[in-house]
Backbone:
């Protein structure tokens, strides 16, 4: 009996009215864990019940503790009929199982119902007493830490990096069970939520076991996905990188938080990491899900490797067993491994896997970046930096080392144009570099980066089974080729020479395939300057035609010049010699890819143009004209905006702590009447451009502003769901989970002003209840003008004496609640929880990781019109998901979620029946952060000293 | 191709206060987009009509989702659904409870019932305020009324506490609640010249001096229900005793003499005043003595206009002259040796004097 789980139900608030007659509710709570259920007393006739229950104690195996969530159901007592459920709360207690994470879960949770959404809140207190169990045959893996973050978490040091871990579990999807025909959709959705919660618990436990086996204590870059395969089942799979992490004690902690993307990484830092021994004991798969590495870890980067495979789900022999899927993935990973070898690399970094399912067809994809990892890291013991006589190390500065080719110059895997590195002039570098990782912190960059997207649609005939699979796998190579060409052209148009964070998504629909590639383009100083783009016609006879080409060429040249200006790309003089060479560089691919279908036929394709010159675009057919059009129609970003899909924006270093995370979902309906590829392409491009434009407009108040980690997801849902009448319709869903970060490029003074005003927003929460403290009654607007600086100071001191500085961890929030109960009967204002897809919060220091957040929700409605149509329904649902994530983080004692991502957003509607349903899966790491300026002042005390330190915030 | 769904949700809820105003004004999305275009929103950030439309829709949806919370503003601070910076919360509440005084003037003194709600379209077409906005304002009045109706303690503070309004807003709402509760007549043609602010001032005077809450001692009055909403019964009863001022001929004459003595040479309309004194005095005292009847309470303002303000205005009294007269008229009663109701008199005349002065538009 290695664990005792204790739960206490304290109170509820804002409950819905369940009894029409009295306009009140007789609420009670059921607390369930595993097969044990406890109940509280009924608290009669109240919308704000105070149960103050005893401690409900569950004595359970730690295995169950990992798998099962704590289920809390709030019900309305009914004397005569069955009790009505008000809603549920699922609490994942995994964070409590690790000694370094949270110690208890305590706070207000939204009560959630799949039909009604959030219905009030419940205050719960959960604790776990864990007894040590040293049984080596144990099935549990308590204590293994999980991180979504794809870099070494900020307050840890990697002692050892063990390598790739993966696991996959399968279950029958409750929605497809026979029982579904007799039970309500609500019951089946609840069953689904519960099942997925259980499955991800089980998955984490199994991965944890593997990590323990390897001798690690943590999983970094944990990526968990769901495949809703339909009738063949529900798959939950996860990959990650096993590590042994040492916690840095706060006293000796190097300042890892200061985002040092300024070129030479601090010595203290590299020294710290050099002690890390990475054992790439040539494992089966030398894959790393990390995208950010300790300095010196990455030696060379070969290029992107990817593999795709088309499978038929109805061919799985025993769908309830994971073997078949395991074999599929195994196959793909082998391919990736062999591609990496072909590039002369022994490891793959920035590795990720994904699927796209349409009825019985499933495309499995995997991609990563082939890389050489530092051999020193693999040797025994710790080596001090600089002592090595390695041929790369002594000479090449770290800022360009990773660009140097890992493969043999005379035996290249594909035709490429090599030059000597523009930094060190010793090693060869390729002319273009594509990678899936983040820009290494030490890399030297010229100018700023920008988001580059390639978009592509391909129609296909509607087909079934094998025929369909073959058709898709025939199309895939061409799609990849075209996406690649588009990326390359757009990169050249922006005068850049490298792509980071490349993510190619191919989704399959009934009669079309969609491809969307996003990456962040940069100009790496080590790589040669890209040449221009030349337009050429094949039959240069007609004078008009020549003229047309000439204008086209001029437009392209103008755009390039403009972009150089825009992204501030002014390469040093020395590059001129090469730019001036009359022979344009040759395009070749760093993309090594292959496709295979269910018949396991392997197909390799060289993506290079062969003998053709790379940047000559021939416009003898309509396709090429379209290409050029699409090149030029990419709308430029409005002034003051920057965007990228990596963690940090290359070329921008002055960040403020203001940030705003957002999610945007769009669904379009296409009329399918004889759409051509070009037509579709144009529409798709417009959709993406419009979405971006909309985002810029919505965030205009935050200028200057950078959209970081912009993550686009496209899907082509099944046709039947949106078929209406005789018209055949199709639907494209663009789901961007995008995040914005404010930064200021102006003077330091201005920057402080911004930070200060952001603080005010968070700070002034309690004063809301005390209108008297603000006699003017006018809301305090954070002002940006310089003279407002002076005006604000008296306000600041007033504010800080009235309430404690805000961004210290939870205990502070609790004391605040005590104070405000005086003025407000309904309790404390809600503590602010920040959310970000980045692994850090600018201007702050993460002091503690509290555990992984991995939540799955289903929401359904049978009154779609009444809820404001599909948009109203989804808007509300996404807001609810955010609210639940924030509540869980706050209950763990955290004040932010980092590495947040919305993995899944599946939307289905049936307007004729007035129904809709949506599934959302989110994940992230709950953390406690403190503002950089408050570091010295910890622990925060309500003293005059504290006030002055906050005041200094505004002055420094 | 058509957009079926378009949603944008931020972790910190993004709210544009300009669009909020358009929403509060009851504009439809299409009208709001047009209004924003007219304001030059297209010049920002290279926007186009589509972008503007999508943004406006998002904002309107957010406001609609928030509206439920705004109905009980105290919930806004501890709800979990939207993370709204507190200065935005304050602004949301303030603006939501803001009303057009033209509209408030129309419904002032009317029963806040379904019947009145049905007449809102008339008010809407009369005032030019959209029906939607009228409904919101009306529902706000009604909501505040319902909540504070059964509460103990001072009215303004109750409103402020439950709706987190600013001082001025709370006072205005108190006036509306007060008028709706006592159903004062404000709709008559003769009263049309009075603005909402005039009435709100009078209401605050009545609340401050004539209600139950006005006399009670501090520890007592927190126990009394409706202390600020209903006029004090005992006081209204005592007002009957003031009749002696006109019924007793001696006293009336003496009163006149005292007032005349004080005003002689100080006002231009002295003669007219002298001639009219008895009428005026009778009007004021009769008004006082009738206030035990609910009907007459309701007619308080129309009576003041008809019996006091209009005669004076006919004779072209200036505001200064009215002020002087009322001051002396009140003070002179203290000089009447046989008059014993000094306290009641002052309480009555203090309010009546301030009301008349506020309502006296030259």
Residues:
């Amino acid at each position: 009996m290695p664990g005792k789980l204790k739960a206490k139900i304290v109170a509820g608030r804002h409950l819905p009215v369940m009894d029409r007659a009295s306009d009140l509710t007789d609420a009670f709570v059921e607390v369930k864990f595993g097969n044990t259920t406890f109940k509280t007393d009924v608290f009669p006739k109240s919308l704000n019940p105070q149960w103050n229950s005893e401690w409900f104690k569950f004595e359970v195996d730690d295995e169950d503790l990992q798998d099962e969530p704590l289920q809390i159901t709030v019900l309305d007592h009914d004397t005569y009929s069955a009790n009505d459920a008000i809603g549920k709360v699922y609490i994942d207690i995994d964070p409590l199982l690790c000694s370094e994470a949270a110690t208890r879960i305590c706070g207000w949770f939204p009560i959630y119902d799949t039909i009604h959404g959030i219905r009030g809140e419940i205050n719960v207190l959960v604790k776990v007493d864990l007894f040590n169990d040293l049984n080596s045959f144990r099935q549990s893996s308590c204590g293994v830490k999980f991180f979504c973050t794809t870099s070494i978490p900020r307050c840890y040091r990697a002692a050892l990096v063990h390598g790739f871990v993966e696991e996959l579990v399968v279950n029958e999807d409750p929605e497809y069970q026979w029982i579904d025909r007799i039970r309500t959709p609500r019951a089946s959705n609840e069953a689904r939520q519960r099942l997925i919660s259980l499955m991800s618990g089980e998955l984490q436990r199994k991965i944890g076991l593997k990590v323990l086996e390897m001798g690690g204590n943590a999983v970094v870059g944990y990526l968990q996905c769901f495949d809703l395969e339909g009738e063949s089942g529900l798959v939950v799979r996860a990959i990650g990188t096993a590590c042994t992490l040492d916690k840095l004690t706060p006293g000796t902690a190097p300042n890892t938080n200061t985002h040092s993307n300024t070129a030479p990484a601090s010595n203290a830092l590299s020294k710290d990491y050099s002690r890390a021994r990475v054992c790439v004991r040539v494992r089966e798969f030398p894959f790393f899900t990390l995208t950010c590495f300790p300095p010196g870890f990455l030696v060379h980067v070969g290029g992107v490797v990817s593999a795709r495979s088309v499978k038929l789900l109805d061919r799985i022999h025993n769908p309830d067993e994971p073997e078949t899927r395991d074999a599929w993935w195994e196959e793909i990973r082998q391919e990736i491994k062999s591609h990496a070898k072909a590039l002369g690399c022994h490891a793959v970094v920035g590795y990720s896997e994904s699927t796209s399912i349409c009825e019985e067809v499933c495309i499995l994809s995997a991609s990563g970046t082939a890389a050489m990892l530092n051999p020193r890291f693999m040797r025994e013991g710790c080596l001090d930096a600089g002592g090595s006589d390695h041929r790369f190390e002594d000479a090449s500065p770290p800022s360009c080392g990773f660009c140097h080719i890992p493969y043999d110059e005379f035996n290249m895997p594909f035709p490429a144009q090599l030059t000597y590195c523009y930094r060190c002039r010793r090693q060869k570098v390729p002319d273009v570099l594509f990678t899936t990782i983040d820009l290494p912190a030490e890399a030297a960059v010229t100018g700023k980066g920008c988001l580059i997207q390639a978009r592509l649609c391909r129609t296909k005939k509607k087909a079934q089974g094998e025929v369909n699979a073959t058709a898709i796998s025939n199309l895939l190579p061409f799609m990849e080729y075209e996406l690649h060409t588009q990326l390359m052209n757009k990169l050249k148009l922006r005068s850049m020479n490298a792509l980071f964070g490349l993510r190619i998504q191919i989704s399959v629909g009934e009669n079309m395939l969609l491809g969307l590639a996003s990456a962040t383009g940069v100009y790496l100083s080590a790589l040669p300057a890209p040449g221009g783009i030349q337009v050429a016609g094949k039959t240069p006879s007609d004078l008009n035609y020549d003229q047309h080409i000439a204008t086209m060429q001029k437009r392209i040249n103008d755009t390039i010049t403009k972009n150089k200006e825009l992204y501030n790309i002014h390469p040093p003089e020395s590059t001129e010699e090469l730019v001036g060479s009359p022979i344009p560089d040759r395009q070749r691919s760093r993309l090594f890819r292959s496709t295979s279908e269910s018949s396991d036929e392997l197909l390799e394709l060289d993506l290079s143009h062969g003998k053709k010159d790379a940047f000559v675009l021939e416009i003898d057919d309509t396709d090429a004209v379209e290409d050029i059009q699409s090149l030029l129609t990419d709308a430029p970003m409005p002034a003051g905006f920057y965007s990228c899909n990596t963690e940090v924006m290359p070329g921008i270093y002055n960040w403020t702590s203001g940030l705003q995370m957002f999610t945007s979902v769009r669904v379009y309906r296409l009329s399918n009447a004889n759409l051509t590829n070009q037509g579709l392409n144009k529409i798709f491009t417009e959709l993406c451009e419009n979405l971006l434009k909309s985002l810029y407009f919505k965030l205009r108040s935050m200028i200057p502003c950078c959209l970081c980690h912009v993550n686009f997801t496209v899907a082509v849902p099944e046709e039947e769901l949106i078929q209406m009448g005789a018209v055949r319709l199709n639907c494209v869903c663009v789901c961007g989970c995008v995040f914005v970060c404010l930064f200021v490029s102006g003077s330091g003074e201005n920057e402080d002003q911004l930070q200060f005003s952001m603080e005010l927003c968070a700070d002034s929460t309690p004063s809301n209840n005390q209108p008297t403290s603000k006699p003017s009654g006018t809301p305090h607007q954070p002002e940006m003008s310089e003279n407002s600086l002076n005006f604000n100071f008296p306000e600041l001191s007033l504010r800080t004496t009235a309430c404690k500085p805000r961004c210290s961890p939870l205990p502070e929030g609790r004391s605040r609640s005590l104070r405000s109960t005086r003025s407000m009967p309904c309790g404390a204002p809600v503590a602010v929880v920040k959310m970000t897809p980045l692994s850090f919060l600018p201007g702050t220091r993460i002091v503690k990781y509290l555990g992984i957040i991995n939540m799955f929700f289903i929401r359904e409605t049978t009154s779609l019109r009444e809820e404001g149509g599909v948009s109203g329904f989804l808007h509300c649902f996404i807001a609810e998901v955010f609210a639940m994530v924030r509540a869980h983080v706050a209950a763990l004692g955290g004040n932010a979620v980092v590495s947040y991502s919305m993995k899944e957003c599946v939307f289905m509607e049936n307007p004729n029946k007035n129904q809709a349903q949506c599934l959302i899966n989110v994940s992230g790491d709950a953390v406690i952060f403190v503002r950089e300026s408050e570091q010295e002042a910890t622990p925060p005390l309500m003293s005059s000293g504290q006030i002055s330190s906050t005041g200094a915030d505004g002055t420094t | 191709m058509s957009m079926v769904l378009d949603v944008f949700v931020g972790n910190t809820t993004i709210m544009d206060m300009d669009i909020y105003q358009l929403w509060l004004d009851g504009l439809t999305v299409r009208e709001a987009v047009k209004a924003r275009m007219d304001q030059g929103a297209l010049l920002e950030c290279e926007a186009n009509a589509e972008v503007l439309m999508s943004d406006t829709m998002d904002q309107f949806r957010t406001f609609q989702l928030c509206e439920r919370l705004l109905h009980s503003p105290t919930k806004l601070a501890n709800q979990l659904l939207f993370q709204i910076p507190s200065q935005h919360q304050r602004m949301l509440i303030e603006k939501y409870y803001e009303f057009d005084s033209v509209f408030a003037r129309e419904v002032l003194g009317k029963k806040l019932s379904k019947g009145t709600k049905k007449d809102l379209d008339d008010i809407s077409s009369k005032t030019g305020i959209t029906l939607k906005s009228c409904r919101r304002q009306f529902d706000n009045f009604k909501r505040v009324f319902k909540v504070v109706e059964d509460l103990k303690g001072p009215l303004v503070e109750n409103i402020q506490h439950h709706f987190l309004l600013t001082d001025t807003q709370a006072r205005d709402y108190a006036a509306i609640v007060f008028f709706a509760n006592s159903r004062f007549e404000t709709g008559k043609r003769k009263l049309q010249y009075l603005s909402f602010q005039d009435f709100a001032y009078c209401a605050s005077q009545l609340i401050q001096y004539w209600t139950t809450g006005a006399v009670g001692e501090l520890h007592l009055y927190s126990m009394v229900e409706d202390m600020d909403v209903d006029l004090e019964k005992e006081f209204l009863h005592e007002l009957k005793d003031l009749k002696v001022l006109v019924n007793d001929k001696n006293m009336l004459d003496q009163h006149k003499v005292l007032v005349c003595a004080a005003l002689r040479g100080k006002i231009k309309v002295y003669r007219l005043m002298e001639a009219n004194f008895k009428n005026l005095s009778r009007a004021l005292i009769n008004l006082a003595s009738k206030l035990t009847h609910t009907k007459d309470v309701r007619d308080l303002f129309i009576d003041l206009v008809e019996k006091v303000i209009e005669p004076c205005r006919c004779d072209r009294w200036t505001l200064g002259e009215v002020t002087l007269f009322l001051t002396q008229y009140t003070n002179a009663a203290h000089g009447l040796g046989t008059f014993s109701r000094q306290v009641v008199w002052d309480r009555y005349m203090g309010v009546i004097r301030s009301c008349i002065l506020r309502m006296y538009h030259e």
